[in-house]
Amino acid sequence: MAQFSLATEAEMPKSITALWVGREAELAQLERQYRRKRASHAAIIGQRGTGKTALAYMFRELTAQGDLFPGGWHHIKASPIYEMHMDRLTDSLVAKDVSGRSLLFIDDYLEGLTAFDHAIEAHLERNPAQSVLVCSSGMPPKWLREPEVIALGGLSQAEFFELIRRRFNFAGADERQAQKLFELVAGSPLYADLAGKTIREHLMTMNEFVHGLSSFSRSGILGPDGQPLDSLPHDSQLVIVNANQILMQKIRKAPDLLYSINSRKFEEIVADLLSERGYEITLTPPSKDGGFDMYAARKDDLGSFLYLVECKQYTPPGKVGASIVRALHGVVQKQQANAGIVVTSSFFTKGAKAFQEEIPYQMQLRDYLALQKWLGII
Length: 378
What we know:
This protein has 13 helices and 12 strands.
């Protein structure tokens, strides 16, 4: 579930140095477009995993000290979107009349978001000097005016290797496996990033990672020409390697691992477990999370429901107290969500349970035993 308000420049990622690999031509293309006239529009398109958002952040970092956008950047994540949040988004846009030259960055745009399109069009009519940058896995939105369209494909071999190097240092033997990986995924930045993360966290070796990927009949990976790859040699299926799934398998065998991972990883595990249960999940940034760690949304025949989830990685005998439950309840009221959920790797105090029992339909508590149930241990 996404938060539909305009994020300030201070709330956006400060640096993506680790992802600053290649894309010099695309960066120059964006700069030329936005210097062309006061209100310029551009779109970065490509399949998921090609680095569209990373390129946008590179451009932001490149222009941060310049004169292109003295009014700053304003960020909207467009997908997933629910009708119940359109009023909140519209109010945010209405309150954000552009006084100086600024850039409206719309990430993860999807076609068919009619209410969202109408809200953005109304905002641009009120603010004709507003520049816009859109990242989309499909076609650019029709309301962009004379946009510069940049289509992203895979990285070159040198760029692909450099991205992996920035994720971890690999020796000569591993470099041969990196060559195999490059050929297998046609330079997809997503897989370079995932390989680095997986190996850095000691979940598997480069050799194991490469062997986990095999040929496929249809994929979202692009070839050097920017077109989806239809096939690769050999007749086997693609095995999607998910670092958190591998970690969950290990936790199922040894639940005490919940206490050895970092707090962000614990949040990601909880997010995956809720996603398996049919919730649409959006994690908040690691810092400035606003008093909760993720949105969990679900839509069924009875309507749309939004939950705010707070994760507390405590080690017994430490317990989550009533103050944390009260704080999340306050945020739930402020955000006008349906309910709040506190999930912990430990247990709750009597005071926390007593407070929850007073508002059973607005707050839920899930402890170590509930996590074990979600994991299928009990």
